[in-house]
Amino acid sequence: MPSSTQLSLHVTETPEDLAALAANLVIYHCEQAIARNGRFTLALSGGTTPTNLFRLLATPQYRSRIPWEKVLFYWVDERCVDPDHPDSNYRVARDALLHQVEATKFYRMKGELDPAEAAQAYENLLRQHFDLAPGEFPRFDCVLLGMGADGHTASLFPEEEGINIRDRLVVDQRIRKLKSDRITLTLPVLNNARCCIFMVQGSEKHAVLAQALNLLATPDLPAQRVRPVNGELIWVIDEAARKG
Ligand code: 6PG
Description:
Elements: E1 4-12, H1 15-37, E2 40-44, H2 50-57, H3 60-63, E3 71-75, E4 77-79, H4 89-98, E5 105-106, H5 115-129, E6 142-145, E7 170-175, E8 180-185, H6 187-190, E9 195-200, H7 206-212, E10 230-238, H8 239-243
Parallel strand pairs: 1-10, 2-3, 2-6, 3-5, 6-9, 9-10
Antiparallel strand pairs: 4-8, 7-8
The protein binds 6-phosphogluconic acid.
The site of 6-phosphogluconic acid has 15 residues, from loops.
C-alpha cells in the first residue's frame, strides 16, 4: 500500500480545551489499539504542555474510560537527571498521572545513568518489547509530542546531530545551548508511529507554528520532519498559538 500521512489540525479556545481534546484523542487511539491487539503503546513527551493532559486523564471522568492495565507507557525523551529531579519527564508524568491511576506498565528512560548507556539500554528495551529484527523500528500506537519555540521536538534540536540519525532507535544528545544531556527517540521511530499528536499552546509558539504548519515549505525544523509514514499526524493547538 502506498505510504500516506493523514494530517489534521485542531484549534481550541483555551489550553484546558486543548487538554480535553487531546485526552479524547488518546482515549480513541487506546480503544482502537486494544481492539486491534489487546494493548496500547503510548510514548510521552515532557515539558509543561502535557501536564494538563496528564492531570485530566487522572480525573474520575476520564480515568474510568481507560483500561490502565493494558496501557504500556514509554517516553519520547528524557533529561539526564535522576527520576526524582524536578526536570525529569518521568517524574512529571508519574506525579500527575501514573501514580494517580492503576497504571502498572511504565518504562522510563534511565536519566540517572551515563547518557550513552541509558540510550543503549532503552533501545534494547524497545527491541525486546516490540520483538524487532535488526533494522526494524518500533511502531507506537500513539506518540505525544510538544514543540519548542526553536522548532525542536522530543530532544531533537535544529542545531544538533540527532535529527539526522537513521540507524538508531534511541540516542543520547548533548544539547549545547541548554548545556544539558538528553536521551531521545530518533526521527525514524517517531515516523513509524500509527499516530503522532503535537500539543502546542501559547502565543510564544505562534511564529514557529506558522513555519511548522507550512506543509509546502522545505521541512527544516525537527518538528516539521515528523510525518508518520503510514499513520496520522495530529496538531492540537490553542487560539493563543494560532493568532500570536
Ligand atoms: C522535553 C520535551 C520537549 C517539549 C518541548 C515543548 O523534554 O522538554 O520532550 O520536546 O515537548 O520543549 O515544551 P513545552 O510543552 O514546555 O512548551
